[in-house]
C-alpha cells in the first residue's frame, strides 16, 4: 500500500475553492483571570466569545455543561469577551483632520474627575466653573453645538434640556455636531456662550463597555442592577440567570468561553494509479487509502481540521479502469 500512497501524492492535481467559515464555541472550565482567559482563547482558539445578540445568548447557554460547573468556585458565571474601557474618551466629531496634534487629548477635568461613578457614567458636562465632570448620559442638560468649516468651529447654545444622545442627534441635525473643545481658548469661548450658572453638554463621551474586538456592543443583556462598580470592569455571563451579564473584578479566577473560526478549503484530487492486485473499490481499501493520505498530509505540515472523502461517479465507483498509451492497464 505504501507504493500506492506515494503515487497518490506525486500525481495530485489540486483545485481549491473557499467555503464559508464555521464558528465553534468552547467552554473552558479551568479557572483563570480575565486577561489569562483572553490570552488562552487567543492562543488556543480565536478569541473570547463575543455575546452581542439573543442568538449569541442561546449559543452561550447551549455551550455550558452545568454538571461540570458545579465543582467550580462561583460556578454559575464565566468570562465573556467584554470589558469596561475606562480610558476610551472620544469626541462626537470624529474627523481626525479637525484636530491638530494633541488637541483631541485636551481635558479640563474638575478636581477628582472623572470618577466613573457606579461604572455607568459615560458623558461629560461642563460645570458653571468651566471645568468638566463625567455624568450619566440620560441626565438632562442644555447642549453646546458647533458649526464646523474646515478646522474652524462656531459655538451655538441650545436653550432646551435633553439627554446627551438626544443632544448629539439635535446638533447633528441642525448644526455639525456637539462642540469639541480642543484648547483653553475654546473652553473659555464655550463658557461665554452658555448660561454661566448652568452645566451644559458638549461632545466628549466614553464608549465604556466594549466587546473583545474593540467595537461597542449593539445588544444589552445586563442583570438587574448591573454594572454596579467602576472597580469591576470585566464581564461574565451568569448561567443561573439565563446568561445575563455582570461586572466582576478582572483579577478573579473564573471559567471562560472561547470561540474559534474554522476556515475551509475544498480540494479535489484526481488520481491515476498503476494496476495491482488490490481492488481499489473495496470499502476497506478506500478507507485505508484515506487514512494513509491524511497521515501523509499531516507529515507534510497540513494544519487544522482535515476531512477526506471519495467522490463517486454515477455508477457508485471511485476508480475506473482505462488503457495507457503503452497498452498497460491502469485504474
TrEMBL record:
Keywords: Disulfide bond, Signal. Residues 20-146, 155-259 form the C-type lectin domain. Residues 1-17 form the signal peptide. SUPFAM superfamilies: C-type lectin-like. InterPro entries: C-type_lectin-like (IPR001304), C-type_lectin-like/link_sf (IPR016186), C-type_lectin_CS (IPR018378), CTDL_fold (IPR016187). Gene3D superfamilies: Mannose-Binding Protein A, subunit A. This is C-type lectin domain-containing protein.
Amino acid at each position: 500500500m505504501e507504493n500506492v500512497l506515494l503515487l497518490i501524492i506525486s500525481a495530485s492535481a489540486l483545485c481549491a475553492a473557499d467555503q464559508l467559515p464555521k464558528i465553534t464555541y468552547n467552554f473552558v472550565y479551568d479557572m483563570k483571570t480575565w486577561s489569562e482567559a483572553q490570552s488562552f482563547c487567543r492562543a488556543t482558539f480565536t478569541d473570547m466569545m463575543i455575546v452581542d445578540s439573543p442568538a449569541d445568548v442561546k449559543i452561550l447557554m447551549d455551550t455550558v455543561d452545568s454538571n461540570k460547573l458545579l465543582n467550580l468556585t462561583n460556578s454559575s458565571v464565566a468570562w465573556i469577551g467584554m470589558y469596561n474601557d475606562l480610558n476610551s474618551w472620544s469626541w462626537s466629531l470624529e474627523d481626525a483632520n479637525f484636530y491638530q496634534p494633541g488637541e483631541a487629548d485636551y481635558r479640563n477635568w474638575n478636581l477628582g474627575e472623572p470618577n466613573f461613578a457606579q461604572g455607568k457614567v459615560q458623558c461629560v458636562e461642563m460645570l458653571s466653573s468651566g471645568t468638566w465632570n463625567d455624568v450619566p448620559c440620560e441626565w438632562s442638560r442644555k447642549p453646546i453645538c458647533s458649526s464646523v468649516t474646515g478646522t474652524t468651529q462656531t459655538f451655538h447654545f441650545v436653550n432646551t434640556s435633553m439627554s446627551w444622545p438626544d443632544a448629539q442627534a439635535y446638533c447633528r441635525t441642525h448644526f455639525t455636531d456637539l462642540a469639541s473643545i480642543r484648547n483653553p481658548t475654546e473652553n473659555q469661548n464655550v463658557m461665554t456662550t452658555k448660561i454661566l450658572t448652568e452645566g451644559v453638554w458638549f461632545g466628549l463621551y466614553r464608549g465604556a463597555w466594549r466587546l473583545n474586538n474593540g467595537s461597542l456592543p449593539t445588544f444589552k443583556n445586563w442583570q438587574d442592577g448591573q454594572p454596579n462598580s467602576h472597580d469591576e470592569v470585566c464581564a461574565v455571563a451568569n448561567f443561573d440567570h439565563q446568561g445575563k451579564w455582570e461586572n466582576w473584578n478582572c483579577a478573579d479566577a473564573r471559567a471562560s468561553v472561547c470561540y474559534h473560526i474554522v476556515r475551509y478549503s475544498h480540494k479535489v484530487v484526481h488520481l491515476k494509479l498503476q494496476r495491482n492486485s488490490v481492488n481499489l473499490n473495496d470499502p476497506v481499501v478506500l478507507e485505508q487509502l484515506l487514512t494513509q493520505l491524511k497521515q501523509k498530509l499531516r507529515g507534510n505540515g497540513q494544519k487544522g481540521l482535515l476531512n477526506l472523502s471519495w467522490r463517486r461517479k454515477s455508477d457508485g465507483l471511485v476508480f475506473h479502469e482505462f488503457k495507457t498509451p503503452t497498452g498497460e492497464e491502469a485504474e
